[in-house]
Amino acid sequence: MFDTTNFPNAKKVWFMGEFQDWSDSKVHSMSHALHYGTSVFEGIRAYATPKGPAVFRLEEHIDRLLHSAAVVQMKVPFSKEEIIQACLSTVRKNGLDSAYIRPLMYYGYGNLGLVPKASPVELLIGAWEWGAYLGEKAKYGVRVYILPWRRVHHSQYDMAAKLGGIYVQSMFCGVIAREKGFDEAVFLNFEGNIAEGPGENILIVKDGVLTTNDMSESVLEGITRTTVLEIAQDLGIPTVIEPISMEDLCHSDEIMFSGTAVEIVPIIQVTDGSNPNVGERACTIGKGEAGPITKRLRKIYMEIVAGNRPEYEGWLSYVNR
């Protein structure tokens, strides 16, 4: 029996077209992905709405899952529509009003040469209740640590793909930031500009202009990032896509993380630990609290995902329809 303390109300896992009990779901210890990180995945959220649970931007997430699979040469065993329906069915089967949904596609058991010539591609989908990724204080602002390790470079692989093996860097750097007493980590890229967090994009506000970076700065252009830019444009907030320097970051009026898990979270303090030979330097952002544009974008985003903004209802896939 597997403890579900960290997976509240998880009852069933969708695996290759069938539901399995959460505690009975198994992957062989010699599966290719376990040894080499040959997996692709998505993080997707469903929210409680007046019309029942709804998944936010599900189609875009599955499009990216399929793109990621193509990058690692996977022959996907299901169609896009079948995967979409499987995600909706998994939320429904678990009886969840709100959920974090994890589709994972990977090379399974077959051979352990680096080339998975005998390892089948398998797909599983889990869903469970998951609250604020960075904790309840996240709505008020978090403290971040700029790491001495640089983000994987955009010249090394397709930054539009979410590849399991790449997230090893995110894992250990996120742990290091927390061990040092911070809420989250931030990466620079090889050029010395701001890249992203371990699982979040970064946007800054200066003089009323919202700025973020793109794949040329070694970031995943997240679906939530795209959403924030679209909301800002609808509100008449000027948006710019360009590199963000360390100076830009520390002299901004507001900074925010965006991502499916984290949603929209203000950053209120940055500590630069990128050069161990110089020592750490901390800077407070703005007034050391969530700024007005961040709060406005977060408020509207949470209204959208909760089904309270009819003009954005096209971004929602209702579970019970």
Topology readout:
Elements: E1 12-15, E2 18-21, H1 32-36, E3 39-41, E4 44-47, E5 54-56, H2 58-71, H3 80-93, E6 99-107, E7 121-128, E8 142-150, H4 167-179, E9 184-188, E10 201-206, E11 209-212, H5 223-234, E12 239-241, H6 246-250, E13 254-259, E14 263-272, E15 281-284, H7 292-305, E16 316-318
Parallel strand pairs: 8-9, 8-14, 11-12
Antiparallel strand pairs: 1-2, 1-7, 3-6, 4-5, 4-6, 5-16, 6-7, 10-11, 10-13, 13-14, 14-15
Average of pLDDT: 97
- List low-confidence stretches: none
In the CATH hierarchy, what is the superfamily of the largest domain?
A: D-amino Acid Aminotransferase, subunit A, domain 2
- The radius of gyration over CA amounts to 20 Å
Number of domains: 2
Strand content: 25-35%
Question: Roughly how many Å apart are the termini?
Answer: 33 Å
- The general outline is globular
| CATH class (first level) name of the largest domain | Alpha Beta
CATH architecture of the largest domain: Alpha-Beta Barrel
Describe the main β-sheet briefly: 8 strands, antiparallel
Number of helices: 7
Structural class, by secondary structure, is alpha+beta
DSSP, total strands: 16
Indicate the CATH topology of the largest domain.
Answer: D-amino Acid Aminotransferase, Chain A, domain 2
Order of helices and strands: EEHEEEHHEEEHEEEHEHEEEHE
Helix proportion: 10-25%
